[in-house]
Amino acid sequence: MSDSDPPGTFYTEERWQNWIERIDEEEIDPEDEDSARLLLNLQDDTAIAVAKIITAYEDGDIEAEAAREKLEDIREIVLSEVQLDDEEKLMLVDGVQTSLVCVFYAAEEYVAGGVAEDGSIEEYVRAAADAEAEEDPDAALGYCAQAGTRIIDGDELSMELAEELEFGLVAEWVNGLDSLQTAMSDPEVVEEDED
């Protein structure tokens, strides 16, 4: 990290904690549109930070090593254990964290090795679903991350494909990749609005 970089340019512990505090303070009902939006905003906000790091790396503003470090910093913030007394809220935040795991892996894989060239998004996601069915979550995550590198490169994840998936890890990861796709196409900051 260079001296000209303000610390935590892309994402900060404080930012994550602000979201967690909002979730802690509000009545959360995943069936309720406002609650669902709050959780999605939490997820999108992180995906946007990841997209900004990738863009900075692609534009040559930061080296691969710095991009990896920044991704790791955000991953440590976002995937650390959350302190919430409400079990249901904990589960919902855990779902967001699970979705984001694949976003980090895809970004790290993209920075380390570029775009996965052996298949389309659909082929990678189907391979991931097959791996999950065979109880091989590591392989499933690998395939999802490869799909993610193609999303970063501009390929489009179809929502029909996402809707076909059985509920499980791959469906959660693809949900995260959908946030990454949105973030790559429109990396505008999600406002932590106080309404």
TrEMBL record:
Pfam families: DUF2150. This is DUF2150 family protein. It comes from the Archaea. InterPro entries: UCP022079 (IPR014518).
